[in-house]
């Protein structure tokens, strides 16, 4: 996400804001995440990216790209000054925008062609006015465009959105066969659907949710005994849990809990 746009240095280096999708856009978008940043010369930072099981569309000052989920922790380097208009899409929307299965570009991105809507979103993000006003205008412009390139959702699209929502919302789902049975699917059928829409596996989706659940628990209860937490999440030992946690969140569970205690 390196970008050298025309923004002056901000009062703080990174201004990150999230906005919910509403109305008709909510069927296609989970939420918007908008970033403005400004670092002094020779300054910058690496930002770990929380990976959701869905594609992100990102418009910056010099490009617009559709990013597929990655099986590993993603890190973006920010320097200079710039903007990012980010859209976390519903699971089904990414493959519809890409016009191809997500497993064909998993862990990678594809360019979104320059068009008047992209240019307008970019201009509104960098225009006059306070951040909230500019962001609302940019989101409205994006939603005017989004309804056009995305065809009507199919039954499989709607099913996959429901599967993803169930994984995110239900912490009792621990196994792929349980998830498949809930939706009346064979395990193989579920695996094919997830590969097409997410590019990864149902096991990865469940594991990612468990590890984010672990992070939330450690943030609110940093004194939690880590081996016990690992067992509650279905891990046979702490070492395996620690390795997966670091690959998804960044720090190890011990490091994450220590940081939470220090806050």
Q: Would you mind describing this structure in some detail?
A:
With 263 residues, this protein is α+β, with helices and mostly antiparallel strands. The chain has helices at 91-98, 116-125, 131-146, 155-169, 176-182, 187-197, 202-220, 226-232, 238-249, 253-262; strands spanning 14-20, 29-38, 44-49, 56-60, 64-67, 74-79, 81-89, 109-111. The chain folds into two domains: 14-146, Jelly Rolls, CATH 2.60.120; 155-262, Homeodomain-like (Arc Repressor Mutant, subunit A), CATH 1.10.10.60. 44% of the residues lie in helices and 19% in strands. The chain has a six-stranded antiparallel beta sheet. A two-stranded antiparallel sheet has the order 3-6. Strand 4 (56-60) and strand 5 (64-67) form a beta hairpin. 33% of the residues are buried.
Short description:
44% of the residues lie in helices and 19% in strands. It contains 10 helices and 8 strands. The strands form 2 sheets. The protein has a 6-stranded antiparallel sheet. It has a two-stranded antiparallel ribbon with strand order 3-6.
């Amino acid at each position: 996400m390196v970008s050298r746009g025309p923004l002056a240095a901000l009062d703080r280096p990174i201004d990150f804001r999230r906005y919910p999708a509403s109305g008709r856009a909510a069927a296609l978008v989970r939420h918007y995440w908008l970033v403005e940043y400004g670092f002094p010369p020779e300054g910058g930072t690496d930002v770990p990216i929380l990976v959701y099981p869905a594609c992100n569309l990102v418009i910056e000052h010099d490009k617009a790209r559709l990013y597929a989920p990655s099986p590993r922790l993603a890190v973006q380097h920010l320097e200079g000054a710039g903007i990012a208009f980010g859209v976390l899409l519903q699971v089904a929307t990414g493959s519809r925008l890409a016009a191809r299965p997500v497993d064909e570009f998993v862990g990678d991105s594809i360019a979104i062609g320059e068009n008047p809507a992209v240019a307008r979103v970019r201009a509104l993000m960098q225009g006059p006015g306070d951040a909230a006003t500019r962001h609302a205008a940019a989101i409205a412009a994006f939603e005017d465009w989004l309804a056009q390139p995305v065809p009507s959702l199919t039954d499989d699209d709607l099913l996959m959105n429901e599967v993803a929502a169930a994984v995110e919302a239900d912490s009792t789902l621990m196994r792929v066969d349980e998830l498949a049975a809930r939706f009346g699917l064979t395990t193989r059928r579920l695996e094919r659907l997830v590969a097409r829409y997410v590019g990864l596996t149902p096991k990865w989706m469940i594991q990612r949710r468990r590890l984010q659940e672990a992070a939330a628990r450690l943030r609110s209860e940093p004194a939690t005994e880590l081996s016990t937490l690992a067992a509650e999440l279905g891990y046979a030992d702490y070492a395996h849990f620690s390795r997966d946690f670091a690959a998804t969140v960044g720090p190890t569970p011990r490091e994450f809990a220590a940081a939470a205690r220090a806050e």
